[in-house]
Amino acid sequence: MNAATPSRISLAPLHAVLAQLDDFILGKPRETRLALACLLARGHLLIEDVPGVGKTTLAHALAATLGLAFQRVQFTSDMLPADLIGVSIYDRDSHAFRFHAGPVFSQVVLADEINRATPKTQSALLEAMEERQVTLDGETRELPDPFFVIATQNPSSQIGTFPLPESQLDRFLMRITLGYPDVAAERAMLLGEDRREMLRDAKPVISLAELADSQHAVRRVHVAPALVDYVQALCRATREAPDFHNGLSPRAALGLLAAARAWALLAGRDMVIPEDVQAVFAAVATHRLLARASNRPQPELVAKLQAAVAIP
Protein backbone atom coordinates (compact mmCIF):
# COMPACT_ATOMS: atom_id res chain seq x y z
CA MET A 1 0.00 0.00 0.00
CA ASN A 2 1.35 3.37 -0.96
CA ALA A 3 1.74 5.86 1.84
CA ALA A 4 -0.75 8.72 1.75
CA THR A 5 0.23 12.32 2.13
CA PRO A 6 -1.59 14.66 4.52
CA SER A 7 -3.21 16.50 1.61
CA ARG A 8 -4.63 13.28 0.10
CA ILE A 9 -6.23 11.52 3.04
CA SER A 10 -9.69 12.26 4.33
CA LEU A 11 -9.82 13.40 7.94
CA ALA A 12 -13.47 12.38 8.28
CA PRO A 13 -12.66 8.88 9.67
CA LEU A 14 -10.30 10.37 12.28
CA HIS A 15 -12.91 12.93 13.31
CA ALA A 16 -15.45 10.09 13.59
CA VAL A 17 -13.02 8.25 15.88
CA LEU A 18 -12.70 11.30 18.14
CA ALA A 19 -16.46 11.81 18.22
CA GLN A 20 -17.11 8.22 19.28
CA LEU A 21 -14.36 8.32 21.90
CA ASP A 22 -15.93 11.46 23.34
CA ASP A 23 -19.22 9.55 23.69
CA PHE A 24 -17.47 7.02 25.93
CA ILE A 25 -15.21 9.37 27.90
CA LEU A 26 -17.33 12.40 28.69
CA GLY A 27 -15.77 15.81 29.19
CA LYS A 28 -12.20 14.77 28.24
CA PRO A 29 -11.77 15.77 24.56
CA ARG A 30 -8.14 16.79 24.99
CA GLU A 31 -7.18 13.48 26.58
CA THR A 32 -8.92 11.38 23.91
CA ARG A 33 -7.24 13.48 21.20
CA LEU A 34 -3.84 12.90 22.80
CA ALA A 35 -4.53 9.15 22.94
CA LEU A 36 -5.36 9.04 19.23
CA ALA A 37 -2.36 11.21 18.36
CA CYS A 38 -0.14 8.79 20.29
CA LEU A 39 -1.36 5.87 18.21
CA LEU A 40 -1.02 7.80 14.93
CA ALA A 41 2.58 8.61 15.88
CA ARG A 42 3.21 4.88 16.47
CA GLY A 43 3.93 5.39 20.13
CA HIS A 44 2.63 3.79 23.31
CA LEU A 45 0.43 5.36 25.96
CA LEU A 46 0.66 5.44 29.75
CA ILE A 47 -2.45 6.48 31.67
CA GLU A 48 -1.94 7.28 35.34
CA ASP A 49 -4.71 8.18 37.73
CA VAL A 50 -6.73 7.00 40.69
CA PRO A 51 -9.02 3.99 40.18
CA GLY A 52 -12.44 4.49 38.66
CA VAL A 53 -11.95 7.54 36.43
CA GLY A 54 -12.10 5.70 33.08
CA LYS A 55 -8.55 4.53 32.30
CA THR A 56 -9.60 1.02 31.26
CA THR A 57 -12.73 2.30 29.53
CA LEU A 58 -10.64 4.59 27.34
CA ALA A 59 -8.44 1.66 26.26
CA HIS A 60 -11.47 -0.52 25.48
CA ALA A 61 -13.17 2.33 23.61
CA LEU A 62 -10.10 3.06 21.51
CA ALA A 63 -9.75 -0.57 20.41
CA ALA A 64 -13.47 -0.93 19.67
CA THR A 65 -13.66 2.34 17.75
CA LEU A 66 -10.65 1.45 15.62
CA GLY A 67 -11.76 -2.14 15.08
CA LEU A 68 -8.43 -3.59 16.26
CA ALA A 69 -7.74 -6.93 17.92
CA PHE A 70 -7.67 -6.30 21.66
CA GLN A 71 -6.24 -8.09 24.68
CA ARG A 72 -6.41 -6.98 28.29
CA VAL A 73 -3.80 -8.19 30.77
CA GLN A 74 -4.35 -7.62 34.47
CA PHE A 75 -0.90 -7.20 35.99
CA THR A 76 -0.42 -8.67 39.45
CA SER A 77 2.50 -9.28 41.77
CA ASP A 78 2.65 -13.00 40.91
CA MET A 79 2.49 -12.54 37.12
CA LEU A 80 5.35 -14.05 35.07
CA PRO A 81 6.83 -12.85 31.75
CA ALA A 82 5.51 -16.01 30.05
CA ASP A 83 1.97 -14.96 30.99
CA LEU A 84 2.47 -11.97 28.72
CA ILE A 85 4.70 -13.20 25.89
CA GLY A 86 3.71 -16.86 25.64
CA VAL A 87 5.37 -20.19 26.15
CA SER A 88 6.68 -23.17 24.16
CA ILE A 89 5.07 -26.49 25.13
CA TYR A 90 6.25 -29.90 24.00
CA ASP A 91 3.79 -31.63 21.69
CA ARG A 92 3.98 -35.42 21.96
CA ASP A 93 2.32 -36.04 18.61
CA SER A 94 4.73 -33.89 16.58
CA HIS A 95 7.71 -34.54 18.89
CA ALA A 96 8.47 -30.81 18.86
CA PHE A 97 7.91 -27.73 20.94
CA ARG A 98 4.92 -25.65 19.85
CA PHE A 99 4.70 -21.96 20.67
CA HIS A 100 1.52 -20.71 22.31
CA ALA A 101 1.35 -16.96 21.82
CA GLY A 102 0.58 -14.73 24.77
CA PRO A 103 -1.70 -11.69 24.84
CA VAL A 104 1.10 -9.40 23.64
CA PHE A 105 0.45 -10.76 20.13
CA SER A 106 -2.47 -8.42 19.61
CA GLN A 107 -2.91 -5.05 17.93
CA VAL A 108 -3.98 -3.23 21.09
CA VAL A 109 -2.66 -4.52 24.41
CA LEU A 110 -4.02 -3.10 27.64
CA ALA A 111 -1.50 -3.60 30.45
CA ASP A 112 -3.86 -2.84 33.29
CA GLU A 113 -2.26 -1.65 36.55
CA ILE A 114 1.21 -2.32 35.15
CA ASN A 115 2.93 -1.09 38.30
CA ARG A 116 1.39 -3.89 40.37
CA ALA A 117 3.68 -6.40 38.63
CA THR A 118 7.31 -7.00 39.55
CA PRO A 119 10.10 -5.32 37.56
CA LYS A 120 10.94 -8.66 35.90
CA THR A 121 7.49 -8.90 34.37
CA GLN A 122 7.39 -5.19 33.51
CA SER A 123 10.63 -5.59 31.57
CA ALA A 124 9.04 -8.28 29.38
CA LEU A 125 7.29 -5.45 27.54
CA LEU A 126 10.52 -3.60 26.68
CA GLU A 127 11.53 -5.40 23.50
CA ALA A 128 7.95 -5.63 22.29
CA MET A 129 7.33 -1.90 22.72
CA GLU A 130 10.56 -0.74 21.12
CA GLU A 131 11.26 -3.37 18.45
CA ARG A 132 7.67 -4.56 17.85
CA GLN A 133 8.88 -8.12 18.14
CA VAL A 134 9.64 -10.66 20.85
CA THR A 135 12.40 -13.23 21.11
CA LEU A 136 11.80 -16.54 22.86
CA ASP A 137 13.87 -19.72 22.72
CA GLY A 138 16.23 -18.09 20.23
CA GLU A 139 13.46 -17.29 17.73
CA THR A 140 12.23 -13.80 16.93
CA ARG A 141 8.53 -13.34 16.26
CA GLU A 142 7.03 -10.21 14.71
CA LEU A 143 4.08 -8.51 16.38
CA PRO A 144 0.97 -7.33 14.50
CA ASP A 145 0.79 -3.97 12.78
CA PRO A 146 -0.42 -1.69 14.20
CA PHE A 147 0.84 -2.55 17.66
CA PHE A 148 -0.22 -0.24 20.47
CA VAL A 149 0.39 -0.72 24.19
CA ILE A 150 -1.86 1.17 26.58
CA ALA A 151 -0.67 0.79 30.16
CA THR A 152 -2.58 2.04 33.16
CA GLN A 153 -0.97 2.55 36.52
CA ASN A 154 -2.14 3.65 39.91
CA PRO A 155 -0.35 6.44 41.77
CA SER A 156 2.87 5.17 43.35
CA SER A 157 1.62 6.23 46.77
CA GLN A 158 -0.92 3.39 46.73
CA ILE A 159 -0.17 0.06 48.42
CA GLY A 160 1.30 -2.78 46.36
CA THR A 161 2.87 -0.84 43.51
CA PHE A 162 6.33 -1.18 41.92
CA PRO A 163 7.59 2.02 40.26
CA LEU A 164 8.35 1.70 36.55
CA PRO A 165 12.08 2.08 35.83
CA GLU A 166 13.25 5.02 33.75
CA SER A 167 14.13 2.75 30.82
CA GLN A 168 10.53 1.57 30.57
CA LEU A 169 9.01 5.00 31.15
CA ASP A 170 11.01 6.24 28.16
CA ARG A 171 9.31 3.59 25.97
CA PHE A 172 5.97 5.35 26.44
CA LEU A 173 5.54 8.21 24.00
CA MET A 174 2.91 9.90 26.15
CA ARG A 175 1.56 9.89 29.67
CA ILE A 176 -1.88 11.32 30.34
CA THR A 177 -4.14 11.63 33.34
CA LEU A 178 -7.93 11.76 33.10
CA GLY A 179 -8.88 13.26 36.43
CA TYR A 180 -12.38 13.61 37.77
CA PRO A 181 -15.11 14.75 35.36
CA ASP A 182 -16.69 18.14 35.72
CA VAL A 183 -20.23 18.45 37.09
CA ALA A 184 -21.96 18.42 33.70
CA ALA A 185 -20.01 15.44 32.36
CA GLU A 186 -20.50 13.43 35.56
CA ARG A 187 -24.25 14.15 35.54
CA ALA A 188 -24.52 13.04 31.90
CA MET A 189 -22.66 9.84 32.81
CA LEU A 190 -24.90 9.12 35.80
CA LEU A 191 -28.07 9.59 33.77
CA GLY A 192 -26.79 8.00 30.56
CA GLU A 193 -26.27 4.49 29.24
CA ASP A 194 -23.95 2.06 31.01
CA ARG A 195 -20.50 2.27 29.46
CA ARG A 196 -20.05 -1.49 29.45
CA GLU A 197 -23.19 -1.92 27.35
CA MET A 198 -22.01 0.85 25.03
CA LEU A 199 -18.69 -0.93 24.55
CA ARG A 200 -20.43 -4.20 23.66
CA ASP A 201 -22.43 -2.42 20.97
CA ALA A 202 -19.59 -0.23 19.64
CA LYS A 203 -18.75 -0.50 15.94
CA PRO A 204 -15.52 0.51 14.20
CA VAL A 205 -15.74 3.87 12.44
CA ILE A 206 -12.44 3.61 10.53
CA SER A 207 -10.97 0.84 8.40
CA LEU A 208 -7.55 -0.69 8.94
CA ALA A 209 -6.42 0.76 5.57
CA GLU A 210 -7.58 4.25 6.56
CA LEU A 211 -5.76 3.97 9.89
CA ALA A 212 -2.56 2.84 8.15
CA ASP A 213 -2.86 5.71 5.66
CA SER A 214 -3.21 8.16 8.55
CA GLN A 215 -0.11 6.78 10.27
CA HIS A 216 1.86 7.12 7.03
CA ALA A 217 0.51 10.65 6.58
CA VAL A 218 1.85 11.70 9.98
CA ARG A 219 5.39 11.05 8.79
CA ARG A 220 4.87 13.41 5.85
CA VAL A 221 3.64 16.40 7.83
CA HIS A 222 6.19 19.13 7.11
CA VAL A 223 8.49 20.41 9.85
CA ALA A 224 10.33 23.68 9.18
CA PRO A 225 13.94 24.18 10.38
CA ALA A 226 12.78 26.84 12.84
CA LEU A 227 10.38 24.33 14.37
CA VAL A 228 13.20 21.81 14.79
CA ASP A 229 15.17 24.58 16.54
CA TYR A 230 12.26 25.00 18.95
CA VAL A 231 12.11 21.27 19.72
CA GLN A 232 15.86 21.21 20.32
CA ALA A 233 15.63 24.27 22.56
CA LEU A 234 12.98 22.58 24.69
CA CYS A 235 15.03 19.39 25.01
CA ARG A 236 18.20 21.34 25.78
CA ALA A 237 16.36 23.30 28.49
CA THR A 238 15.34 20.06 30.23
CA ARG A 239 18.95 18.83 30.16
CA GLU A 240 20.29 22.05 31.64
CA ALA A 241 17.56 22.58 34.23
CA PRO A 242 18.70 21.94 37.81
CA ASP A 243 15.22 20.77 38.80
CA PHE A 244 15.44 17.37 37.07
CA HIS A 245 17.68 14.33 37.46
CA ASN A 246 18.00 13.91 33.68
CA GLY A 247 16.76 15.76 30.63
CA LEU A 248 14.86 14.46 27.63
CA SER A 249 16.67 11.78 25.64
CA PRO A 250 17.11 11.79 21.85
CA ARG A 251 14.31 9.17 21.76
CA ALA A 252 12.08 11.65 23.55
CA ALA A 253 13.01 14.40 21.07
CA LEU A 254 12.03 12.14 18.16
CA GLY A 255 8.81 11.27 19.96
CA LEU A 256 8.00 14.92 20.58
CA LEU A 257 8.34 15.70 16.89
CA ALA A 258 6.23 12.67 15.90
CA ALA A 259 3.51 13.59 18.40
CA ALA A 260 3.45 17.20 17.14
CA ARG A 261 3.08 15.93 13.58
CA ALA A 262 0.13 13.74 14.63
CA TRP A 263 -1.51 16.65 16.47
CA ALA A 264 -1.10 18.85 13.38
CA LEU A 265 -2.66 16.16 11.18
CA LEU A 266 -5.70 15.90 13.45
CA ALA A 267 -6.05 19.68 13.15
CA GLY A 268 -6.06 19.37 9.35
CA ARG A 269 -2.66 20.94 8.74
CA ASP A 270 0.16 19.56 6.59
CA MET A 271 2.81 21.40 8.59
CA VAL A 272 3.70 21.63 12.27
CA ILE A 273 3.37 24.96 14.07
CA PRO A 274 4.74 25.80 17.55
CA GLU A 275 1.28 25.41 19.08
CA ASP A 276 1.33 21.73 18.06
CA VAL A 277 4.55 21.17 19.99
CA GLN A 278 3.17 23.04 22.97
CA ALA A 279 -0.03 20.97 22.92
CA VAL A 280 1.81 17.64 23.25
CA PHE A 281 4.91 18.66 25.19
CA ALA A 282 3.58 17.98 28.69
CA ALA A 283 2.23 14.56 27.70
CA VAL A 284 5.54 13.58 26.09
CA ALA A 285 7.89 15.06 28.69
CA THR A 286 6.38 14.92 32.18
CA HIS A 287 6.82 11.19 32.91
CA ARG A 288 10.44 11.34 31.68
CA LEU A 289 11.46 14.24 33.92
CA LEU A 290 11.84 13.23 37.56
CA ALA A 291 12.21 16.13 39.95
CA ARG A 292 15.29 16.10 42.17
CA ALA A 293 13.30 17.19 45.22
CA SER A 294 10.67 14.42 45.10
CA ASN A 295 12.08 11.87 42.62
CA ARG A 296 8.68 11.98 40.95
CA PRO A 297 7.20 13.79 37.91
CA GLN A 298 6.20 17.36 38.69
CA PRO A 299 3.85 18.74 35.98
CA GLU A 300 4.11 22.29 37.29
CA LEU A 301 7.90 22.29 36.82
CA VAL A 302 7.49 21.04 33.23
CA ALA A 303 4.93 23.75 32.51
CA LYS A 304 7.26 26.40 33.96
CA LEU A 305 10.15 25.20 31.82
CA GLN A 306 8.01 25.14 28.67
CA ALA A 307 6.84 28.71 29.28
CA ALA A 308 10.44 29.89 29.67
CA VAL A 309 11.57 28.67 26.22
CA ALA A 310 11.10 31.26 23.51
CA ILE A 311 8.70 30.40 20.69
CA PRO A 312 10.10 30.94 17.15
From TrEMBL:
Residues 41-182 form the AAA+ ATPase domain. InterPro entries: AAA+_ATPase, ATPase_AAA-3, CbbQ/NirQ/NorQ/GpvN, ChlI/MoxR_AAA_lid, P-loop_NTPase. PANTHER family: METHANOL DEHYDROGENASE REGULATOR (PTHR42759:SF5), MOXR FAMILY PROTEIN (PTHR42759). This is AAA family ATPase. It comes from Chitinimonas viridis.
